Amino acid sequence: MKIAVVGATGLVGGEMLKVLAERNFPVTELLPVASEKSVGQEIEFQGKKYKVVSMDAAIAARPAVAIFSAGGGVSKEQAPRFAEVGTVVIDNSSAWRMDPTKKLVVPEINAKELTPADKIIANPNCSTIQMVLALHQLHEAFQIKRIVVSTYQSVTGTGKKAVDQLMEERAGQAASNPAYPHPIDLNVLPHIDVFEDNGYTKEEMKMVRETKKILGDDTIQVTATAVRIPVMGGHSEAINVEFEREFDLSDVYRILRETDGVEVVDDVAQNQYPMPKDAHGKDAVLVGRLRRDESQPRTLNMWVVADNLRKGAATNAVQIAEAMLKMGLLPS
Questions:
Q1: Can you tell me the distance from the alpha carbon of 206 to that of 82, in angstroms, rounded to the nearest whole number?
Q2: CB 312 within 8 A of CB 129
Q3: Which of 134, 167, 306, 317 is 20 to 30 Å from 56 at the Cα level?
């Protein structure tokens, strides 16, 4: 199967190539796509060298799938061009997520909604993916009423520029090309993406809007605070979730252990709980610190951690392609 990876030289693009190889996706021809200045550069995939090609060359090749991680502007402009030649586009930017004509997919939750007509499919925001994967089966069992979430997000979510800033600051140097308006090493920034008119950041509002769309329930109330911290391994979230129906903690543990893509790590007697360093390189969403909120009824506290470059981006995108392949929805 002919596959294009748009943004192949970036952090997420590189992870997408790695995940495609690890999961043995049936790639017969790879089309790595990047900016014009990168055209002609070589990348390695499954022991072979491939030259980076231009967008036009990739579209002319009519790949079965194009996985995008090149920013919203590029996606808005170029995804429809791929779709017009019959390519299925799986887009990792925010460009199409809230478009009512496009599906927003976490395969374990709603891949079954995909149809042959879906040519541009949106990959959700990284912090939303890990939260809804941990919550969707609990929602089916107990009906979520309200979610209060605070995130603790890795610098890798911003990209290489942010990683370089952290490493330079950690080495005692001034950042040569800072990604953030303040130092990130030994610091915490309650600021991810741009601020909207309501005082929330775009990242916070993504979690609000995307959660309702993925779970298919506009009655769920969500409020979020998104924070950048100086770690590399993945994103962490403190989630307080109020249900309509009463629950028993033993049932919560059972449901989570039975949820595809979730791993329960919760043994406080042995100091075992999810941490970014343990999520790094894994596809599972780690869930722990499960406990009742003693301040109000039918409310659960949980701590959720995942590698934002993998399940939060690359793995989820590849899993969408896998689901479509299994359902016979990809062009040959």
A1: 26
A2: yes
A3: 317
**Cα separation of 247 and 258, whole Å?**
16
Q: Which single residue is written with the structure tokens 């040959």?
A: 332
Residues 6+ apart with CB under 8 A from 4: 30, 31, 32, 33, 58, 61, 63, 65, 66, 67, 82, 87
Residues 6+ apart with CB under 8 A from 277: 231, 233
Using an 8 Å Cβ cutoff, are 128 and 222 in contact? Answer: no
Report pLDDT for 19.
Answer: 98
Bridge-partner residues for 121, per DSSP? 90
Q: Which residues are catalytic?
A: 126, 235
Structural domains of the chain in order of their starting residue, each with its CATH number: 2-124+313-326 (3.40.50.720), 127-307 (3.30.360.10)
Residue 92 · residue 273 · CB < 8 Å: no
Rounded to the nearest 5 degrees, what angle is found at the Cα of 155, between the Cα atoms of 153 and 157? Answer: 75
Residues 6+ apart with CB under 8 A from 64: 1, 2, 3, 87, 88, 330, 331, 332
Take residue 226 and report the two structure tokens written for it: 């998104």
